Amino acid sequence: MNKINLFIIGTQKGGTTALAEFLSQHSDIYVTDGKEAHVFDDPSLSRCNDSIDLAYRHLLSKYNNESVICDATPIYMYFGDIPKKLYEYNPSARLIVILREPSERAFSQYQMERRRGDEPLSYPKALLAEVKRLREDSNPYQHGSSHRLHSYRSRGHYCRQLDNVFSVFSRAQVLLLTNDELRYHHDVTINKITRFLDVNNEPVVSSTVFSGEYKATLKESITSKVLRLYFFPERVRLWRRYGVRL
Length: 246
Prior knowledge:
Protein name: Sulfotransferase
Mean pLDDT: 94
Enzyme class: transferase
Number of strands: 5
InterPro entries: NST/OST, P-loop_NTPase, Sulfotransferase_dom
Shape: globular
Structural class: alpha/beta
Radius of gyration: 18 Å
Domain Sulfotransferase: 5-202
Low-confidence stretches: none
Order of helices and strands: EHEHEHHEHHHHEHHHH
Distance between the termini: 39 Å
GO molecular function, one term: transferase activity
């Protein structure tokens, strides 16, 4: 079987679902069934290539020899050991990272976990509890772990995640995008992606697949402003180190 050769690895709530939806329209790109394969973060999966290939085989029900096969699982960037596993699986794979202003991303994740019933705390209390929750999380890969559910600030430290990615993948193998590029400059961004993937630049219809417009309470709005200040040094590092402005 052909190996997955494109991974959309992050960030959660950054626009990965929209990007996968757009790419799935392209005749040369196949996105795994269900978009997020969650193969490399599956705590029950053996890491040998045979078991990985088998897991992917079940997610390619309509594959028709497209040249690009994509797994869009944003947690792959967050878990520090996964980029190396992706490289060991397919050293020639390409990666797309789409980033979002980290305080906006954090609040969007919080709202998602509240809707799912996985977050009982108010937003300020959830942020204050995060360090303790993650420190006491003995098995981050376990389904329902705090690293999966309550990593609001932690996921927004993009530089250390990107440093980890680039410790194994070359710059030429990774395309960095922002949520705003995809949202407000659709055609230009899709053209940039098709050039990166060496496929034809086919028309890809933009649609309103972004979600997460929430009406914040006063307390949540104040908390988000404080969090934006907290992430200011991170945004500066991201610009200086990787040329990404959020």
